[in-house]
What does this fold into?
Amino acid sequence: MKEKTTQIPFLSPTLEDVRCRFETWRSGKKTGSRIPNGLWKAAVEQCQAHSILEVSRALRLNYNDLKERVHKSKKVALPSSDGCMEFVKLDFEGQSRPPECIIEMEAANGTKLRMHFLGQHKGIDPVDLTRAFLRQGS
It folds into this structure.
């Protein structure tokens, strides 16, 4: 006879759960030990439901360190060459005026880039420029 198993759905830990994990770690850590990545990850995940200030106070973390990790977790990663990025081909043939394209973007660190193309520019690759721009912000 086959046993029936009950699956328990995955529940995200509450802020109080994460606070208890931090306290447990702190009670057994050596002086000068760095916070384990798993605890940082749990703290960053709490910032989806709570403010960075609230989480940093509850977990007794440096506000700026937590804020930096939250922003790093939200960085836009460039897609790999597996075809995840979708492009729209614009056909400018037969237009009376030269094609014009304006691309504006902002990196996670606040740096802005604006590209303005007028006419045919065969030596400029906007994708390479975008990759270089996003790399400089990391």
About this structure: Residues 9 and 17 are 17 Å apart (CA to CA). The two ends are 57 Å apart (CA to CA). The first helix runs from residue 15 to 28. The chain has a mean pLDDT of 78.
